[in-house]
């Protein structure tokens, strides 16, 4: 349904947003955290607060991940996830989330589908 022009003109939304990130240097802590808070008030003055929290594990090198995604199959990657050897939340020192990046780089379609599930 497309809103009428009169309905669109009366719609007002106020948004306040705050972000907080903690990205330590390697060797200080192995986790990075990013938080986002959004307060939204629509035209009927009903405030809503949205919160998003992301936590990642920083890894020193990507040899293990690269070898697993280049040479491994879905079952081996799943076993590595379940045993805690790697996580879907591993980041490298420049901030790339390694599992989806390596799966895309090595065109591992079944791994991308697995990560999406």
Helix-strand layout with pairing:
Elements: H1 5-9, E1 14-22, E2 31-41, E3 47-58, H2 63-71, H3 74-83, E4 90-91, H4 98-105, H5 109-116
Parallel strand pairs: 3-4
Antiparallel strand pairs: 1-2, 2-3
Helix pairs in contact: 2-4, 4-5
Spatial separation of the terminal alpha carbons: 31 Å
Q: What's the overall average pLDDT, rounded?
A: 78
Computed Rg: 20 Å
Structural class: alpha+beta
Q: Judging from the principal axes of the Cα atoms, what is the shape?
A: elongated
Describe the biggest sheet?
A: 4 strands, mixed
Number of strands: 4
User: How many structural units, i.e. domains?
Assistant: 2
As residue ranges, the low-confidence spans are: 2-9
- Strand fraction equals 25-35%
